[in-house]
Amino acid sequence: MNIKIIISVLVALCTGAAIAMQSTLNGKAGAVIGPIRTGLLVNALGGSLALVVLLVLFLVFGEGFFGTSFFGTAGNMEAWRGSSVFMLSLGAGFLGILIIVGISFAVQGAGITAGLSAVILAQLVVGMIIDSSGVGSAGVIAADPRRILGVIVMAVGVFLLVPKA
Fold it and tell me: Which residue in 137, 139, 9 sits closest to 73, CA to CA?
């Protein structure tokens, strides 16, 4: 296994831990103000914080900051204007609202473990479809029997983790 894959898996594990912690907070907030308000509020506050950070970085580094490899490709603001990056980001932000609403709702009813395992199962299924179609950024990764078995094992795990109340 190459170092890029190892680092990617370690980052994914850390991200998964952050999702579990965030899901707990979203579930608690959702129980107080409701899942939809929680999704909107979390994203509004997160977006506001991100805007402040971007503005500070822009003031410190100037317009060149937006064209550095920090964002994945070299370029400048003119390359960003009129590009699909803003539309993709808008779509991802909207999905972020739906994700927080869904997780807030799921963990209230099924618990953190069952709720997140069901979310992860769906991520695996959709991710495998995206990988095998080549739409993702890693190119085509075939849905071979070993990978399909992994998703089936995860589905059995989700079934075992759902409370039987």
Answer: 137
